Automatic annotation (TrEMBL):
Species the sequence originates in: Mycoavidus cysteinexigens
Highest taxon above the source species: Bacteria
Name under which the protein is recorded: Uncharacterized protein
Record InterPro entries: DUF5710
Amino acid sequence: MPRIDLNVPFAEKDEAKRLGARWDGERKVWYVPDGVATNVFGRWLPREPDISVRSSIYFIAQTINPCWKCGEHTSAFGFILPAGHEMLEPDDEDDDRDAWCRYDEPTIVHYVTDLLPGVVARIKAFSRHYCVDFSKTTQSSYWMNHCEHCGMKQGDFEMYCEPQGAFFPMDEHAASQIVLHEFAEPFGCNGGAVYGNHLFEYMRRA
Ligand SMILES: [Zn+2]
């Protein structure tokens, strides 16, 4: 049987360890060791991702941002989807059904709660500080940046919703601080898409 990896938020790692989960330092993931029953790990067991946004191609956006806590500069990551991505929305003709709607402008996603495993593997290769964590602001868990120096959460609100936030550039220079890594692979997440002028054309291609 293949090994079962667990989705353990950083804040719950001690509890997972106490229950018998083991840490894979190379792949940065907790897993169920051989011979240990999986049922005690219920809420961390993998489930099918709940996808509401999808694209056949995507960019991992990378920038440097000062940590609000320790002041050191730390890397921050996000996802940008080109024009042609789709979102699941209520169907006008059928109330019980959602339909995929195509968008003809690029977007940036935030408050991401689910990600396709292939996308998780890509972002994990960039940073072990991008992981699911609980936000007191939203009272929910989502894929969040963390300071690479002090480990503090770097919440999405400041980065995506506040003008001049790391992923809310207000001028060409700010946009040029963002580096885009292109992946011609399927993207899928559950999260919010932000539309508007993000100055995508001034962001740098890796
Ligand atoms: Zn810090």
